[in-house]
Amino acid sequence: MGPLHRDELVLDTARVRRLVDATFPQYAGLPLAPLGDSGSTNALFRLGDDLLVRLPRQPGGGASVAKEARWLPFVDARTTAAVPSIVGVGEPGPDDPERWAVTRWLDGVRPRAGHGSVALARDLARFLTELRAMEVPAGAADDEELRWYRGGPLAAQDAELRESVTQCRRLGLPLDLDEALRVWDLALEASATTRATAGWYHGDLLAENLLVDEDGHLSAVLDFGTLGIGDPAVDLVVAWEVLGAEGRRELRARLDVDDATWTVSRGWALLIALITFPYYGATMPRRCADRLTMARAALGPDA
To answer: How far apart are CA 295 and CA 290, in angstroms?
Structure first.
């Protein structure tokens, strides 16, 4: 995978090898190899059989590493699905200006977008129920590190959505963008009627941040750099990207999602999809294919 951002940090294997050997000499003899399926926020390198090195791709990305180091043990103790376990944090230095982390390797494969089963829907519903039930410690609700636009009002993203539609028209996407605007307006209307209680949300609960086992059950949830406190409706995008129609019905029933919140989740799915295509269209084809699946589902007859 080549550079994804204009300000991307140089993170080749030789540099990461120096970082690991200098910071964690106990791992100096372990083989190191980049993962072809790295994300857009962190570059990923497998270290031996049991470890993973995660390094921020952009300046400022070390804040999410510190955030995960603080909150992942809290989440892990309160949810059933496996989450990353950080075994060490590397501090900024001459070879990397950002914090980075070594975590335990988690087994599983990424689910195929749009094909998640009813069983996976049940597992996701359990994870979301557990996540939303987590207590909010004193001071956490006012912690700026736990605030992000995806936990805020959908209406605040109206200009972003409409600009993305304009950009997507130039790309010739196989997607009905006029229908996307119509559904977006419905989602905005619905959002004005909802009054969600602020709670924990993952913020990026999409196929690339999930692992399933050979039977299709949820085995792990990844990347908690967007973990926050706010309106948790955004996490319902997992229904539109990962699950099929039957799985969506199962997830909605188990979470007892009302009509307005379900419509709002369609809006979030469209926003997250449409902002992806102009930015990552030339660099992350698999992500864009997943987002196209999500957008089509949110616009489809079973929505």
So the answer is: 9
CA distance 99 to 275: 27
Amino acid identity of residue 5, one-letter, is H
DSSP class of residue 37 equals T
pTM (two decimals): 0.96
Separation CA 232–CA 152 (nearest Å):
9
Each residue of 163-202: pLDDT tens digit?
999 999 999 999 999 999 999 999 999 999 998 889 999 9
Alpha-carbon distance of 176 to 151, in angstroms, equals 27
Give alpha helix (H) positions in the chain: 13-23, 62-76, 118-133, 158-169, 177-191, 237-241, 245-255, 259-280, 285-299
> Which residues 6+ apart lie within 8 Å of 282 measured at CB?
none
| 114/120 Cα distance (integer angstroms) | 12
